[in-house]
Amino acid sequence: MANTKSAKKEARKTVKRTLHNKGIKTRLKSLTKNARVALESDDASTAQKAVSEAVSAYDKAAKRNVVHKNKARRIKSGFSGALAAKF
């Protein structure tokens, strides 16, 4: 348990940040799943749209340090490669 006033405040901030980041990460996982399902289908426009949404979300999350920038780059690269190979 935090002893100082500043440590108590930091603990409160950590709880708020964790809840905020958890929502973002959940959205990223959903978009990733949607993009993978769309890539397995035969509709190029749906796959392009789903991949575009996922890539945009990963860019924003990496910009705000919710996910590491290299993780975002790795996932974006995988999506673009899969999209190019499929269509």
Give a description of the structure.
By secondary structure, the protein is an all-alpha fold. The chain has a domain at 42-87. It contains three helices and no strands. Helix 1 packs antiparallel against helix 2 (44-63) and helix 2 packs antiparallel against helix 3 (69-86). The termini are far apart. The mean pLDDT is 96.
Q: State the end-to-end distance.
A: 55 Å
Structural class: mainly alpha
Q: How many distinct helices?
A: 3
Which of globular, elongated, flat, extended, rod-shaped describes the shape? elongated
Beta fraction of the residues? under 5%
- Average pLDDT rating: 96
Query: Element order, helices and strands?
Result: HHH
Helix fraction, binned, reads over 70%
Radius of gyration: 17 Å
Residue windows where pLDDT falls under 50 for at least 5 positions: none
The strand count comes to 0
